[in-house]
Amino acid sequence: MVEKRSWAEPWKIKMVEPIKMTSREERERAIREAGYNTFLLQSEDVYIDLLTDSGTSAMSENQWAGLMYGDEAYAGSRSFKNLVSAVHDVYGYEELIPTHQGRGAEHILSQILISPGDYVPGNMYFTTTRYHQEFAGGTFVDVIVDEAHRPDSIEPFKGNIDLDKLAAVVDTHGADKVPYVSFETNVNMAGGQPVSMANLREVYEYCSARGILVMLDATRALENAYFIQQREGGYLDKSIAEILREITSYSDGATVSSKKDNLVNIGGFLAVRDPEIARKARAMLVVFEGLHTYGGMSGRDMEALARGIREMVASDDHVRARVGQVEYLGNALIKAGVPIVKPVGGHGIFLDAASILPHIPMEHFPAQSLAAALYVDSGVRAMERGIVSAGRDPETGEHRVPKLELVRLTIPRRVYTQAHMDVTAESVMSLCERPEQVGGLRFTYEPEVLRFFQATFEPIV
Ligand code: PM9
Questions:
Q1: Which pTM does this prediction carry?
Q2: Looking at residue 335, what is its pLDDT?
Q3: Cα 116 to the chain's mean position, in Å?
Q4: How much distance in Å is there from the Cα of 105 to the middle of ligand 1?
Q5: Domain extents for the chain?
Q6: Which of 156, 342, 350, 393 is most buried (CB neighbours < 10 A)?
Q7: Measured between alpha carbons, how far is 348 from 415 in angstroms, rounded to an integer?
Q8: Percent of the chain scored above 90 by pLDDT?
Q9: Is 140 annotated as catalytic?
């Protein structure tokens, strides 16, 4: 008989952080004061914080010990050396440019590789990534497979690049106008959907033959490695560490927000193979971040990060439990008939707000409205991932209307228990039973860039 064990966590809790239980009246006041934007809530007013998995992980005792061991030397820090060696051993890249977080790496990469008039194909946009590509004068072109836009499709690799779409961009504009392909692992905006190893290999071969670089957004490559292990033929017997190394072998470099897979609260990096690209990146690093041996991080941050990188692949049990918890919540919602993006992704559950609230038109922001209503119902903080996040087209000034109008329940790593997941599921289910009680919103303040962070709204009555 095959032994079947649950995904239970390979750690126990050593320290706890109290969280406040609030009344409905308190939450109604808090969301009003936050302009119906969950980014603007005070964390002390939040019960279960599923805004993001970014920088919200619980560090291990080994990482906390690493903070004391951090070398704060301005130049040549020992902690930088430890970080270089961890990135090399786990991701396989030789050249490391440390940044304060992922967007710092995206800024540098975009500035050194993109010239005005260039095109950057990618598998669905990410907010900060696309912003930096456009800021450098490039145009992002979405080349993700069509299944990514269908919440109900249970294709196992909905993050894949459609080779025909990629070839169309290259044929139309010429390979010299395509500096690199921006290839995200476990695509965030698609619902945490993975790319297959076969697709990574194919894209790399196509690009290498045409002199186009492949730059991964490897922010959630660990979770992608887990899905490859579970879903792609021939990988069940390979370790997560081996699969991760194979993923990165089909690339020329990567940007990473270390606030996710890497189990730290701040940090990120650009890593590449080509010393000439690294030289150009370091020249920018000293202008925008800091000296090349710390970039945007303190010595203690680099030490905790080096340890987090090694820890995430030390045993497959870590990622199994991490994704297992996400699947636990997702399966509870699927069982209750709640429309979510399927298959369940790696870092969160994405509620299909357009289906849950069909009476709210897109211009009244169904996902923003649902996230606000969820907070009022239970104190669970989620994030809008739809028309507000997509922003406006810089050319036309019109809303960019994405095919997915989602609310993301993002699960921090090693932070919440199964009972917290149960409470979250109960609250979502109860909202789904009375959707007509949720109304739409309109802007009272709309920032020009990355508007979802700081916009404010009011209910349409
Ligand atoms: N992601 C998230 O909550 C935090 C910012 S919310 C817009 O999902 C990818 C795939 C990300 C990401 C951040 C970044 C930027 C790059 N790529 O936040 O700058 O998911 O460290 O990373 C967030 P930083």
A1: 0.95
A2: 98
A3: 27
A4: 11
A5: 24-53+316-459, 61-312
A6: 350
A7: 14
A8: 98
A9: no
260 belongs to the catalytic site = yes
Distance, in Å, from the CA atom of 271 to the CA atom of 261, rounded to the nearest integer, reads: 16
Cα gap 431→306, rounded to integer Å? 42
Q: Which amino acid is at 137?
A: G
Query: Quick check: CB of 452 below 6 Å from ligand 1?
Result: no
- Residue 139's SS3 state is strand
Domain 61-312 has CATH 3.20.10.10: no
Residues 220 and 191: their CA atoms lie apart, in Å, by 12
The verdict on whether 74 is a catalytic residue reads yes
Q: Is 39 a catalytic residue?
A: no
Measured from the Cα of 186, ligand 1's closest atom is 10
pLDDT digits (tens, 9 = 90+) for 222-265: 999 999 999 999 999 999 999 999 999 999 999 999 999 999 99
How many Cα neighbours within 13 Å face the side chain of 121?
A: 27
Examine the residue annotation and report whether 126 is marked as an active-site residue of this protein.
yes
Task: Tell me how far the alpha carbon of residue 54 lies from the centroid of ligand 1, in angstroms.
Answer: 7
Indicate if the pLDDT at residue 2 is higher than 60.
no
- Number of the ligand 1 atom closest to the C-alpha atom of 51: 3
Domain 24-53+316-459: state its class: alpha beta
Q: Whose CA is nearest to atom 16 of ligand 1?
A: 102
133 C-alpha to ligand 1 centroid (Å): 15
User: Position of tokens 């990482």?
Assistant: 63
